[in-house]
Design a protein that fits this description.
Layout lengths: L1 H28 L2 E7 L15 H11 L4 E6 L10 H6 L5 E4 L23 H10 L2 H9 L4 E8 L6 E3 L13 E3 L2 H8 L4 E3 L3 H10 L4 E2 L4 H7 L7 E3 L9 E7 H6 L2 H36 L3 E3 L3 H19 L3 H23 L1 H12 L1
Parallel strand pairs: 1-2, 1-3, 6-7, 6-8, 9-11
Antiparallel strand pairs: 3-10, 4-10, 5-8, 5-9
Helix pairs in contact: 2-10, 5-12, 6-11, 8-10, 12-13
The protein binds calcium ion.
Length: 365
């Protein structure tokens, strides 16, 4: 009797569980099919394909969710033009877009801080601010009026100043140069007489080769070599004052984000964080080989800008940031958070990374 009662109770329990389950099951088993657009064109390494790229992110999310969240990826031009992703996600035309936040600095100047500010934080420092220094919360606050949920899902690390057809020995050598360089850094150079041109990646090489522009920045050795920039200019200035680490942004339509069950939200966040680390590691690995090849096999002269030039650019950048932050309280709030965090992080970097790099130079020089 006792055994039979137990079995009966168990069956009832199981039945009770089954009765309670449907609501839970429907939330957990609903399938989501989303679209992600991208500011970069088909085939772009890092920006579209390869380890830690947006398509890698889509594959990860599909695998981690066992197909419950499937994201169809569209490179620039495949569904919408390159720089329409912000509006498309904001309006819910697509659920996600991959880009760099500074493309949207015309919507709000605060967006610049979530990609790269000249003389800003490096990869470690930027992640520290975003994940543990209030940066993520500020990003969400800045994007809330646009109906967007942002997160980081990639980083190139420090970028290179760029390619010049003539050497830049003093600040006046910049005067009159036509240069491709986006964002705040372009405005800084414009203050020193540079005629700033905005060209998408694919148009940089032909413009530089034909002399339509005299100089260009893109990303770093691997990406720049892929465009062939070394065939049009030989002076490669390495000091990445303008983009000390450049973040790839994932934006998600807020209503779509809110519709996801908690486990799928965690999967999206985890895949984005994984891509942030994996993509930067890929840049670190590929740039080392590419710079070596450019210098050894292609006659490229790679060197930093002089400390005097960099010092002048820093002063101009500080002045411009003061002008922009004075115009908008939310921009000032982001700026103050970023700079306060940076001041503290710089001290730590000074006794950790800086010493490490000095020791490397001691060993290899
Ligand atoms: Ca760049």
């Amino acid at each position: 009797m006792k055994r039979r009662s137990f079995i009966k109770a168990s069956l009832l329990g199981a039945a009770g569980g089954a009765l309670a389950a449907p609501a839970l099951v429907s939330a957990q088993t609903r399938n989501f099919t989303w679209k992600m657009t991208n500011a970069y064109g088909p085939g772009s390494p890092f920006y579209v394909q390869g380890p830690g790229s947006p398509t890698d992110f889509c594959n990860m999310v599909k695998a981690m969710s066992n197909g419950r969240l499937t994201i169809q990826h569209f490179a620039a031009g495949e569904l919408i033009p390159a720089l329409e992703g912000f509006d498309a996600v904001s309006k819910g035309i697509v659920e996600m877009n991959a880009a760099n936040a500074y493309f949207w600095s015309g919507k709000t100047f605060a967006a610049q801080y979530f990609t790269a500010v000249p003389f800003g934080l490096n990869f470690q420092g930027f992640n520290a601010w975003l994940y543990h220094g209030g940066g993520q919360q500020l990003w969400e606050e800045v994007y809330a009026p646009f109906n967007l949920m942002p997160m980081i899902m990639g980083n190139t690390g420090v970028q290179m100043t760029g390619w010049f057809r003539k050497p830049i020995d003093k600040i006046d050598d910049l005067k009159g140069l036509k240069m491709r360089i986006p964002g705040l850094a372009g405005r800084v150079l414009a203050q020193h007489g540079v005629d700033v041109r905005l060209l998408p990646g694919g148009e940089i090489f032909p413009a530089l080769e034909r002399g339509v522009i005299d100089a260009a920045e893109f990303v770093g050795p691997f990406q720049d070599r892929r465009l062939g920039l070394h065939k049009a200019a030989k002076f490669y200035y390495t000091t990445g004052w303008h983009e000390t680490s450049t973040a790839t942004e994932l934006i998600i339509n807020k209503k779509a984000w809110d519709s996801l069950p908690p486990d799928l939200k965690e999967i999206v966040k985890a895949a984005a964080a994984a891509c942030n680390a994996i993509s930067q590691a890929w840049c670190e690995a590929t740039n080392a080989e590419a710079l070596d090849d450019l210098v050894k096999n292609h006659g490229v002269i790679a060197q930093p800008l002089s400390p005097e030039i960099v010092g002048t650019l820093r002063e101009t950048n500080t002045r411009l940031l003061a002008e922009f932050t004075a115009k908008d309280p939310l921009v000032k709030k982001v700026h103050d958070s970023f700079m306060a965090f940076k001041a503290n992080h710089d001290k730590w970097a000074g006794v950790s990374e800086a010493v490490y790099h000095a020791q490397i130079r001691g060993v290899t020089s």
